[in-house]
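[scheduler] slot 2 assigned
[scheduler] job type: sequence-to-structure, two independent chains
[scheduler] chain ordering preserved from manifest
[runner] begin chain α
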Amino acid sequence: KLQSPHFQALFTPGLRSVAELFEKKSYELRIAGGAVRDLLSGVTPQDIDFATTATPAEMKEMFTSAGVRLINNKGEKHGTITARLHEQNFEITTLRIDVVTDGRHAEVEFTTDWEKDAERRDLTVNSMFLGLDGMLYDFFNGYEDLKNKKIRFVGKASERIQEDYLRILRYFRFYGRIAEKPGDHEPNTLQAIKENSKGLAGISGERIWVELKKILLGNHVNHLVQLMYELDIAQYIGLPLDGNLEEFARVTKNIQNLCPKPMTVLTSLFKVKDDVTNLDLRLKISKEEKNLGLFLVKHRQELTKAVGPEPLRPYQDFIMDSREANTNSKICELLKYQGEEHLLREMQQWTVPSFPVSGHDLRKMGVSSGKEIGTALQQLRDEWKKSGYHMDKEELLSCLKKL
């Protein structure tokens, strides 16, 4: 029985009210899936999913007669009802069995058998339930696997994968989150992944990108991406066939504690701009992510620190010369990519200075034609740049008299 402070903290007024309603009607209600895994790991869960023996119709009837507001009826055909109590949403799903699966979606039928529902979940560590009294229901040794930091599919790996091929990437994601060391896989799991890797070709890019981003920011990322190439997965998820695995290994080591964006990590696999474009075609990445990838491929080699007392100057000059928004954040990602931890900290503390002279100042000094003003401003900008952006308005204007 679990009685940790993390578990006790879940009992908000909203959850107490929900629990009372279910108890009154004698419907069973338990916490399901990822939240159970987190609680057993001593982590406060971000999202909590609930499972119940009540059907969607029974839940609707119960909530409506108690005057509880229901929101978002999209999940109803899959058995999910979302109720709002005390400013909190509760997502509650009827126990299900998959009747037909096509590797992407499942047609479900409702059940009151907890084990049957656990059986259709992907990994043992995600297949547990927790009663509101703290009692753990674990049909597939998920708790044992969690304690031993093992990632295993529920039942036969190939059957679970064929129900939804995205589970291949979920396996990698949770491996990176839970396993202690790289390479601790069961050989038959890897075999099942290899035999079914082609199934990922039919999964939407958006779903793949959600999982891939989490893998890129988890542990053992170098090991897991190497494995994707060994198991024939890379080609089906938009990665280049000849990815630069040496550069990837180098960069993932550099970047470990620098909180990079997923795209910063991934770009180290890419050799040319087309690799970014092809990834975008397959995964429908955001415009910002695509631009970051293209920026890193273009500048990672030639835009580097200066030798001498001002190593940051080339980066600062680049920002000052750039006409684009968010160049600053791209430069920070470039510094992470290059493993320049010390320079990154300096860059994050640097405020982009404002050029102190305006056209108005020049007019006051008697420069009247627009063309002359433009030329003078450019000359002053160059002087300002040479000074390391330290010259103030007075110094620059006195400089103008000499020019």
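[runner] end chain α
[runner] begin chain β
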Amino acid sequence: GGQPRNVQPFSDEDASIETMSHCSGFSDPASFTEDGPEVDEEATQEDLEYKLKGFIDLTLDKSAKTRQAALESLKSAFSSKILYEFIMERRMTLTDSIERCIKKGKSDEQCAAAGLACLLCVQMGSGIESEEIFKTLGPVLKKIVCDGTASIQARQACATCLGICCFIVTDDITELYSTMECLENIFMKAYQRDRDTNGVSSTHNTVLHVSALLAWTLLLTICPMNEVKKKIEMHLHKLPSLLSCDDLNMRIAAGETLALLFELARETDSDFFYEDMDLLTEKLRALATDGNKHRAKVDKRKQRSVFRDVLRAVEERDFPTEMVKFGPERMYIDCWVKKQTYETFKEILGSGMQYHLQSNDFLRNVFELGPPVMLDAATLKTMKISRFERHLYNSAAFKARTKARSKCRDKRADVGEFF
């Protein structure tokens, strides 16, 4: 490769620019400062476009380091802004660059390119243009996923990308089944247990198996019910074996997939009966109360939290509802299907998830949020409380907390003296 160029990464300052596309009017209320100076949106939009064009050009640079930096900068931009119109004009160029980087690049570059492919499809949403992107990238992703000589990290990134892009794009049922089969062939290798007392042994392939299983589970949520029934019959008796894996992420992925399968099974048949229910609930309860000293405290805490919810789902058909806030809106996650979908896109979009929930038509459609809520700058300003009011509220809250804590301390002191 050639000499690496100095690539100025996409920064938070760029991300804060209210620009691009039909959704450019959206913003978080916090982005409007009180009595702040007016921003020339047209000029900042041109600056951002200029930077992004430069990054796209650099994805073809001779230096691998430069290409990777450019891919990462594009990922930051795509996750933090809605850039539909900009991308629409350059989708084929971007697709060609991503394909080239996945085919020719090394592990880190392939991972960055696969991540950018996910975000490209998230930006474009479902439609003919996205289908064209997937037709080009789908075979390349499958090839890397199934290539035993490729790095595990690249295969892992491509498995995740394959699942997400297929979820977004495909209306072709045969393509959906083909993609699921590809992912199935990967994670089913984890079922092949070593015949020793420790159950499933942890190998360097486990991260790949986890990503393939999670991507497959995402696609299962959009399958027709007759196919869902087939997959449940095929996997529900095998998945519990993965609960004995040494790897925490595999145990959690298997547990959450089991909860989702039970949820889908009971949707198709309210009288669904699982033969080995006692054995399964015993395993789940053990994981929900695990106190093994050889495991890290953080891992045990995370495992117990997840498996308490999984046990409730399997045993009591219950789901702990979660609320997600974004801008002036609220979304309730009230089932495992919705949780799996939300967690997948949150992993890809990172801190940009709230912004995309507010502004991205595709994601709003997935979570049944309706069309984006149009809010202008004046409305957002009226929604924001003044600095003085916020100060008064914080002072009152602080005093209330201090009084409550003082009472608790007094009670503890009394008890101490009593004993």
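[runner] end chain β
[qc] chain β: The chain has 18 helices and two strands.
[scheduler] slot 2 released
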